[in-house]
Amino acid sequence: MTYYLKKRNFISILLVTGYWLLVTSPAAHAQYLPGMPGKLGVGAVSQTGIEWTFSLGGSLANEVQLFVGNDTAPKITIPADTGTVSIFEGDLEPNTRYAARRIRAVYYGVGGALSAEFPAAYTLARVPSLAIEPIIGSPNIQLSVSESFRLGEGVSGWQVYDVLRRDLRDWVGTYTLQLPGGAPGEGRVFKVRARNAEGLVTDWSESVSYIYEPIPIASPEPSVETVNASSPLPTLTVNANVAALRVRNQPSLSGLIIGRVHGGQSHPVLAEQDGWYRIPYQSREGWVFGGYVSVH
Predict the structure, then answer these.
(1) Which domain holds residue 67?
(2) What pTM was estimated for this model as a whole?
(3) Mean pLDDT of the chain
(4) Whether residue 236 is found in the same domain as residue 286
């Protein structure tokens, strides 16, 4: 009786082991065909990548593959299981349309049917960088985004957030925006973000602060006065309450900023035009606005 029971247990173990080997062998996996992924969408979008989201619908999978267009070879293959819900495609170019993506689940070398195409999407432009300038003869200020941020080709605009006032402005489709001024000494803090044609947005930029100053008044009549080289050069001194005064390559707010001078500093005046003064600056010359200096 004891011999019979041992033999019977031994046979049972062999049967169980054989079944386990059968169901876990590649041949057994080849009998299973994963289903077609569904619920296709777009998740996180960065400046250089897109997260494609999907559902495997409970299908078994040990890999997920991303295909582009009619390519027969996958662009990206990642390990997966039934809980995998997204695949990230990186190293993409800003302002470029990315579409015709499909997904496929694979179970031990056996690929299921390719999904339908994902919804078309754009990668977003770089997060805009913000500049703030006073407007000559006006209490208003002008906000502008840098040239590194490109409108068009899928990028619909940018949006300003007034941090201190908690004011979220409307989306803007131009490179500049004028905002009402404030009392001298009043501080404001702004940050911006971009949006593509599908409504996906970038992260917020770094905050930029601005303190309102007295309204700069332009000279009513254009004139250029060059200082007589035979007479002593007049000197301008930057007002002590000015933290930093921009030096530009032209006597205009549209001039390129080439540097800054600071309150209390004095500089010889080389010429005057429309309320701007030309001064030596480092190894070149530049223009500063006369509303923040005294000349003597």
Answers:
(1) 28-122
(2) 0.51
(3) 81
(4) yes
**What CATH code is carried by the domain that includes residue 135?**
2.60.40.10
Beta bridge partner(s), residue 141: 134, 179
- Amino acid identity, position 151: L
Instruction: Render pLDDT for 77-129 as a digit per residue (tens, 0 to 9).
Output: 999 988 889 999 999 887 778 889 999 999 999 999 999 999 877 777 778 88
- Residue 16 belongs to a domain: no
Cβ atoms of 135 and 58 closer than 8 Å: no
218 within some domain = no
Number of separate domains in the chain: 3
Q: What region, left, alpha or beta, does residue 295 occupy, with left being phi > 0 and alpha being psi -120 to 50 degrees?
A: beta
C-alpha 269: how far from chain center: 42
The alpha carbon torsion through 56, 60, 65, 71 (nearest 10 deg) reads: -90
Q: Which residues pair with 103 in a beta bridge?
A: 66
**CA proximity to 195, closest of 132, 143, 145, 133:** 145
Q: Whole-angstrom Cα distance, residue 186 to residue 213?
A: 8
* Tokens matching residue 178: 């004028």
